Amino acid sequence: MVMDNAGAVRPDFIDGKRKRLLINGQWVEAASGKTFETSDPATGEVLAQVAEGDSADIDRAVTAARQAFNGPWNKWTPADRQMVLLRLADLIDRNFEELAALDTFDMGAPISRTRASRHRVLGMLRYYASQAVTKCGETIPNSLGGDYFSYTLKEPVGVVGAIIPWNSPLTASIWKIGPALATGCTVVLKPSELAPLTPLRLGELCLEAGVPPGVINVVPGFGATAGSALARHMDVDKVAFTGSEATGRKIVEGSAGNLKRLSLELGGKSPDIVFSDADLDAAVPGAAMAVFSNSGQICSAGTRLFVEQGIYEEFVSRVAQFAEQLKVGKGADSETQVGPLVSGDQLEKVVGYLDVGVEQGARCLTGGRRLVESGYEDGHFVSPTVFADVRDDMRIAREEIFGPVISAIPFKDIDEVVERGNATSFGLGSGVWTRDLGKAHRLAKAIRAGSVWVNCYQAMDPAVPFGGYKQSGYGRESGSQHIDEYLNVKAVWIKTD
Ligand code: NAI
Ligand code: MG
Mind listing the domains of the chain with CATH numbers? Predict the structure, then answer.
């Protein structure tokens, strides 16, 4: 039994053996024989050699997924699929410490954070289990006269290509696998090359739970090869993608060949708006952790911190003080609150923005640099950073940084902040801190984003939809809308006379 206050123990899954692809219920080498390394971003240590899937392997996996879709899986009843989801939830519950530690070692998130996702992860699977037996079509009255009866059937879309990023491999995988199992789809899951270990272990647990071979396939590999092959594949019915806006565009292009369905959950530059009437003792940590959680590597992070003029100086300096007391460290340490960035590339990107912020005239209140002192030197660590006096036209106010960087911007009044908050090509998350109910409702309506959090940030529940407006993508995850993304609607007409 691991105590919550203990650090993460390296999971047995990291056993020095090569990690292979899961295709049709079998662990297989890549057709090319190639492998790649995945490493721990806190130490640079190589964790595993992983078989590197490319288009040939994607092709094999799609064939397996198609056969499974047309095979016995097709005959599973809703109750059968519900049971398999519940068994998977129980298995994940029993193995949760290992899964949390795999995420932590492979992508750097603090173990306190990955452990804390337990309730959500299990809730997701149990929610999908409930949807398996309750999603239904409708009987629809028509106006053709008494002799026609019309109703709808909801049927699985088919083979789903799931392409996920590295920032939360466990929840991202379940967000794709769960609705597929609930509806009777099959999946080819392409994890990020930076964090493939949790999805592979999850594939193993799916088999153990009794998911038939070929229903869930896991093919790690690179985006330009494996990911692109999946997006383009003519026998894939839908792609569910989470990742960057640039890659989202490529997936849209790649999908054109067979006009496959898409759901896209892309980036953000979300406004987090603090009014002077807010409970500032709650808003300071709330606004800080809206960005510093997961080292800022969250698509809906509240990175544009708009603060009402009268409290601006006080508020931003309190956020900076809060940032300074955060414990930055290796994800495996139980006290760590902010872990490393996932990779050298991500580090370079974030440090680049720190320089750009200063060059364009922002005032750095705290942080603003890579950590290189003892204990940090081998990892990709950046100190939590608060930039004040940020103008809307600065790059740090416009572009997704995906690091622990707050851009704090003063505002005058509600109309102005609505306009400026919405002046972005993104529309994923948003926050409002106020004690004025009228203001809260006005903003909830006026903000063009898929989620508005009032006096909180990043609240998530399996039953509440999450997704983007504008270039943050389309489609919803969680909620009954999510299940609909995996279903076709068929209209049936019966002439009864
Ligand atoms: P990415 O969007 O390139 O990678 C996400 C997934 O897409 C990975 O599995 C990758 O292998 C795959 N992929 C890459 N190119 C592909 C292609 N041409 N066709 C099909 N699949 C492809 O994101 P990356 O490079 O890891 O991170 C770059 C930036 O993207 C980050 O700095 C951040 O700003 C943003 N990002 C946003 C995420 C979100 O949750 N919205 C998640 C990850 C990154
Ligand atoms: Mg890794």
Answer: 2-266+472-491 (3.40.605.10), 271-461 (3.40.309.10)
Give the 3-state DSSP-derived string for 128-185, with helices as H, strands as E and coil as C.
Answer: HHHHHCCCCCCECCCCCCCCEEEEEEEEECCEEEEECCCCCHHHHHHHHHHHHHHHCC
97 is annotated as an active-site residue: no
Mean pLDDT of 298-324: 98
Q: Which one of 55, 176, 244 would you pick to mutate in the ligand 1 pocket, going by the greatest count of ligand atoms within 8 A of its CB?
A: 244
- The answer to whether 359 touches 343, Cβ cutoff 8 Å, is no
Ligand 1 pocket check for 165: Cβ under 6 Å: yes
pTM score > 0.90 for this model?
Answer: yes
> Rounded to whole angstroms, what are the CA distances from 93 to 16, 115, 121, 341?
25, 11, 9, 27
Query: What ligand is nearest to the CA atom of residue 219?
Result: 1
What are the pLDDT digits (tens) for 363-420? 999 999 999 999 999 999 999 999 999 999 999 999 999 999 999 999 999 999 999 9
Q: Is the CB of 228 under 6 A from ligand 1?
A: yes
Q: What is the DSSP string of 98-136?
A: HHHHHHHHHH---HHHHHHTHHHHHHHHHHHHHHHTT--
Exposed/middle/buried for 80, CB within 10 Å: 0-12, 13-18, 19+? Answer: middle
Looking at 185, 299, 308, 400, which residue is catalytic?
299
Q: How far is the CA of 57 from the centre of ligand 1 (A)?
A: 20
Take atom 27 of ligand 1 and give the residue whose Cα is closest.
244
Q: Is position 265 annotated as part of the catalytic site?
A: yes
Asked if residue 225 has pLDDT above 90, the reply is yes
- pLDDT value at 2 more than 70: no
pLDDT of 491 strictly over 70:
yes
> Ligand 2 mean position to 10 CA, how many Å?
13
Atom of ligand 1 nearest to the CA of 472: 41
244 C-alpha to ligand 1 centroid (Å): 5
pLDDT in tens, 87-131: 999 999 999 999 999 999 999 999 999 999 999 999 999 999 999
8 A C-beta contact, residue 131 and residue 86: no
pLDDT given at position 1: 46
pLDDT at 4 over 70: no
Beta strands 186-190; 21-23: pairing state? unpaired
C-beta of residue 266 within 8 angstroms of C-beta of residue 471: yes
Structure confidence by residue, pLDDT tens digits, 142-162: 999 889 999 999 999 999 999
Cα 27 to ligand 2 centre (Å): 20
